[in-house]
Amino acid sequence: MLKSEMYYLRKFTDKNDLISAIEAYIRYYNTRHYQIKLSCMTPMEYHKTHAA
């Protein structure tokens, strides 16, 4: 997912740009990306709901 949604769509000029983009994507994916397989919740919402 990471490569197809983020990496292949951009050109990175240095390693720090790449690292920043990966960190931003992971934050987005875990906190704002709703997933059907998780009952239309984000991974963090699902974890909070089912961790107890």
Largest sheet: none
- The domain tally reads 1
Q: In percent, how much strand structure appears in the residues? A: under 5%
3D shape:
elongated
Rounded radius of gyration (Å): 14 Å
What is the end-to-end distance?
Answer: 28 Å
Q: Uncertain spans, ≥5 residues at pLDDT below 50?
A: none
User: Order of SSEs, N→C?
Assistant: HHH
Question: Fraction of residues in helices?
Answer: 55-70%
Pairing-aware structural class of the strands and helices?
Answer: mainly alpha
With helices defined by DSSP (H or I, 4 residues minimum), what is the helix count? 3
List descriptors.
52 residues; mainly alpha; 56% helix; elongated
Overview of the structural elements:
About 55% of the residues lie in helices and about 0% in strands. With about 50 residues, it is mainly α. The protein has one domain (about 15-50). It starts with a helix and ends with a helix. The model has no long low-confidence stretch (mean pLDDT about 85).
